[in-house]
Design goal:
Elements: H1 3-16, H2 38-44, H3 50-62, E1 74-80, E2 83-89, E3 95-97, E4 102-104, H4 109-119, E5 121-122, H5 126-135, E6 138-139, H6 154-169, E7 181-182, E8 186-188, E9 206-213, E10 219-228, E11 236-237, E12 241-242, E13 244-247, E14 250-253, H7 254-259, E15 291-294, E16 299-302, E17 307-310, E18 312-314, E19 320-325, E20 328-329, E21 337-340, E22 349-357, E23 360-363, E24 367-372, E25 378-382, E26 392-398, E27 405-412, E28 417-420, E29 423-426, E30 439-445, E31 455-461, E32 470-479, E33 495-502, E34 520-525, E35 534-540, E36 543-547, H8 552-555, H9 565-570, E37 587-594, E38 597-602, E39 605-611, E40 620-627, E41 640-650, E42 656-662, E43 668-673, E44 679-685, E45 692-698, E46 704-708, E47 718-722
Helix pairs in contact: 3-4
Length: 723
């Protein structure tokens, strides 16, 4: 779900507990209006590791994100040895999503049992599965997919969900959704085989499966316990059976019936134990420690504004929250959200949250709050909330001459996931975006066809030029496949680009033999692992660009490899999967020209700084993506960059006196603010004619305070700031 949807869901959950206790309906809260659809859910988790995928499934189901047609339970009557009973089952296997767009989701028996325990349900037995199929008004033809290692992946889950959904759609006119369905999956069941008679001697903690009946009574899957309990493939379905049932007109439970020799035959036909009993009709599960699905996000705000930090977590029992500011507990901050009001410079810093239950605790990644003190005049801005393609010129390059790039304006990245240390999360709003705003321009290169080739794409604002003192600023997200450092993947060798003083008429990149280049530009990869992760270039009209990367003096780079201490500190493991590299998190980028000095900053830290000795002193600005290597990433879908809140600002901000206070000793405390990096003189005078310099001021992110102790010996004093 988008972060806007997540917020609505969190608010809804607070008003929906406890769950409904209607005995004939699924014991869940109503589905939130803006909850994920089945397709959106599958898209988010398509590469998610199993354990994290199951944490998402758990949270989606207990929050009520299941179709409405799945909620009304169906009665199944049974009789044995003079006893009769009725139990209630879901009309189909557990699904996530809406009535129109749902996803039948396989899961391990451990997750299925956890959900049953949480909601008051049981899994069926072999006999119950056959009874359910017999009573089904819709008997679908089983549709197996050829077995291979991918059958446990979301790819196969998605394919089979589509196949089953297509088959089910053929019956909806005569048999609407919500009628009892059989034949679409095999069942995960409770059985004596959970704890004995193992089909595989090396697997003593199995999942037991059965069923997948043809449209005759024959079934594909006999009772089988040869897979481990952490196994789930595309063919597995989870059918919930309400724990409460009736026997001979009185109240009973599934567990009591299955462990009672006089009654077990109502629900079981197994002969492992006497009288069809199943002594332990459940899977053994461990408590679920907290899992953070979406950590709090960082942002930039102006003083006086309000910022709210959210965390989306799941786990067993009650979750407790403890928010931290710069690793110190914030008194009273024990909710899922932290609201910081009337923000001042002192509120800037690192925010995180510890989530705890009886089984353990987990600390979120750090979210940085930055406080903006100066609003620069804007020469150009685009937040990509709408399709602004008509405002940009696009140039591309590829050594094989085949266009291999995409530019997606107003791309909604809020429904895009990323895997960070084996945990799947959704990309949050950019630091300079408000809550719920998740649109950007998305760029890809060298991954849209099967031919590996060096490639690039550059974007320039149309009819734009800047000169003098100005800066290009934007929020940047770099997505890469694999784990930290790009491990368990191949071919991720792409660089985000930014440049100034361009003609805006050609692509600037690093092919073997460019025909022309211009401007001053820089590039960075997302996950390190290349000899030069941070790069600097100078264009040459009508010729090959000059690669300044290897010459730190000429490039102004502080270092080129992500292993450098300065990058390890700037992009620490507390915030970034690959320490030293800016991938899989939002970073704020600035490329500044001030008094003929060129400065490249990321998250406020100088990456490169040098005097501009080139002929390029004014012109257009550029954002882009290049792959200087002929290799296709695996998975190519996970290689892209997002640019959000792109703006060009003039660097002539006003200098402001925030306060002038006379101290008890009659000294004067002056607090001034201006732009980050701005330098000026503070002068004093007693007659407004003769001025004397007091001190030079260099601005940081926060206002600067100067104490004029000499004021105690002077008559009436005046102050001014000058550049």
């Amino acid at each position: 779900m988008t972060f806007r949807r997540l917020l609505m869901l969190l608010l809804a959950l607070g008003a929906l507990s406890p769950f409904s206790t209607n005995s004939q309906t699924l014991n869940l809260p109503p589905r939130a209006i803006n909850a994920l659809t089945g397709s959106e859910f599958a898209n988010i988790l398509w590469l998610s590791p199993r354990d994290n995928r199951e944490a998402w499934i758990y949270e989606q189901i207990i929050s009520g994100n299941v179709p409405n047609w799945l909620r009304t339970l169906k009665p199944i009557n049974t009789a044995s040895s003079g006893h009769s009973g009725t139990y209630y089952v879901t009309p189909d296997y557990m699904a996530i999503g809406s009535d129109a767009d749902y996803f039948l989701i396989p899961m391990t028996p451990l997750l299925a049992q956890r959900l049953c325990d949480k909601l008051g349900y049981s899994l069926p037995t072999r006999k119950m599965v056959s009874q359910i199929w017999t009573n089904s008004t819709v008997k679908l033809k089983p549709q197996p997919i050829t077995a291979d290692p991918l059958m446990i992946s979301m790819l196969y889950f998605f394919d089979h969900n589509y196949i089953v959904g297509t088959n089910r759609a053929a019956f909806t006119n005569a048999h609407p959704l919500g009628e009892l369905v059989g034949g679409d999956k095999k069942d995960v069941v409770i059985s004596g085989l959970i704890y004995t008679n193992f089909a595989n001697a090396s697997i003593t903690k199995p999942v037991v499966i059965y069923g997948w009946h043809y449209q005759t009574v024959t079934n594909i899957q006999p009772l089988y316990n040869g897979h481990e309990e952490t196994y789930a493939d595309y063919s597995h379905g989870i059918r919930f059976v309400q724990m409460s049932m009736t026997v001979d007109g009185g109240a009973e439970s599934i567990t009591n019936v299955l462990t009672n020799p006089s009654l077990a035959g109502l629900l079981s036909d197994e002969t492992l134990y006497p009288s069809f009993t199943i002594p332990k009709p459940r899977y053994t599960i461990a408590a679920l420690k907290p899992v953070i699905l979406n950590p709090p996000r960082g942002r930039d705000v102006f003083r006086g504004e309000t910022a709210t930090f959210y965390v989306y977590a799941t786990g067993d029992a009650t979750l407790d929250y403890r928010w931290l500011f710069n690793n110190t507990t914030i008194p009273g901050a024990t909710n899922t959200a932290l609201i910081v009001t009337n923000i001042q410079s002192a509120n800037a810093g690192n925010y995180s949250v510890i989530v705890t239950n009886q089984s353990g605790s987990i600390t979120s990644r750090v979210a940085i709050l930055r406080v903006k003190t100066t609003d620069f005049p804007t020469l150009f801005a685009d937040n990509f909330d709408t399709n602004s393609s008509t405002n940009w010129n696009i140039f591309w390059g590829a050594t094989n001459g085949i266009p291999d790039y995409t530019v997606d304006f107003a791309f909604d990245y809020g429904l895009t996931s990323y895997i960070f240390n084996d945990v799947t999360s959704q990309i949050p709003p950019a630091p300079n975006s408000p809550d719920g705003s998740t649109r950007a321009v998305k760029l890809t290169v060298n991954g849209n066809d099967t031919t590996a080739s060096t490639a690039a794409v550059n974007l320039y604002p149309k009819n734009f030029s800047a000169s003098g003192n100005f800066s290009l600023k934007f929020d940047l997200w770099m997505q890469y496949p694999g784990d930290a450092g790009g491990l368990v993947s191949t071919g991720s060798t792409q660089y985000a680009q930014c440049g100034i003083n361009h003609f805006g008429t050609t692509v600037n990149w690093v092919p073997p033999s460019p025909t022309s280049s211009d401007g001053l530009w820089f590039a960075v990869d997302g996950e390190g692992g290349v000899a030069a992760d941070y790069r600097a270039y100078r264009g040459v009209p009508g010729g090959t660009q000059v690669d300044l990367t290897g010459n730190l003096g000429a490039s102004g780079l502080i270092a080129t490899n992500s292993t450098a201490a300065v990058f390890q500190t700037l992009f620490p493991a507390s915030r970034f999967e690959t320490a030293g590299s800016p991938g899989k998190n939002w970073v704020e980028v600035e490329l500044r020209q001030f008094n003929n000095n060129i400065t490249w900053l990321m998250d406020g830290t100088i990456i490169a700084q040098r005097t501009n000795t080139s002929v390029f002193t004014s012109g257009n600005v550029m954002i882009g993506l290049m792959d200087p290597f002929s290799s296709i990433a695996n998975a190519a879908r996970e290689c892209f960059v997002l640019f959000d809140n792109v703006r060009v600002e003039t660097l002539t901000p006003p200098i402001q006196f925030e306060s002038i206070i006379q101290q008890p000793d009659e000294s004067i405390a002056l607090t001034l603010s201006s732009a980050l990096g701005d330098s000026f003189w503070l002068d004093t005078s007693t007659n407004l004619i003769d001025w004397q310099p007091l001190t030079s001021v260099s601005m940081t992110n926060n206002p600067v305070t100067f104490i004029d102790v000499s004021a105690t010996t002077r008559p009436a004093t005046f102050y001014r700031a000058r550049r």
